[in-house]
Amino acid sequence: MSRRQVGVPVCPGGPFGARGMRCDRHSRRDRNVQEREADTRDFFGEYGLVTDDEVAGAFAIRGFATVVRNLVGCQWQMSAQDGQGAPHVSFSWYRGSPIGRERADSELIGRPANDIEVGGHPGFVASGSGRPCELGVQFDDDFVHWSTWYAGEVPTADPCAAARQLAELTVSRAVP
Prior knowledge:
The chain is of the alpha+beta class. It folds into two domains: 1-40, no CATH class; 42-173, Protein Transport Mog1p, Chain A. Helices cover 22% and strands 32% of the residues. It is built from four helices and nine strands. It has helices at 25-29, 52-59, 99-108, 159-173, and strands at 2-7, 33-38, 66-69, 73-77, 88-94, 113-118, 121-127, 133-139, 142-149. It has a seven-stranded antiparallel β-sheet. A hairpin with a 2-residue loop joins strand 8 (133-139) and strand 9 (142-149). This is DUF3558 domain-containing protein.
């Protein structure tokens, strides 16, 4: 194993910090870099290494009502009130988890999966009825996962093309 410096988000007290100061992904990036034990796996940073504007562009909208960021991943939502019931895009990074399980789950809920390759890495894309789309890309024992969902809305972009565009950005920016 090798050691490297990696920016770790540190925001005690929530998004506004312990003293009420704004603590978002931009201010965290400049503060509190902590050393962590790292192996040779690729690193996908915060939220798939993409910006909110890039997600909105791929999804073909002007912006999102809310963005939920946590240790599991990130979800860009069209409506803060409806959450999962409104159109949204999500990103997750699964460390040490088999991509085959995610693919099988997609197929079980009626989203047939097809093999793909993104940046030389194998993966799958799964979609049902043209609106929800899931895309996973394998990196050794890890995988990244993009999901686009227009809920009951008319899609403003092809959901799988949006997921693919975001996956390509993430893969191209991965830090080895």
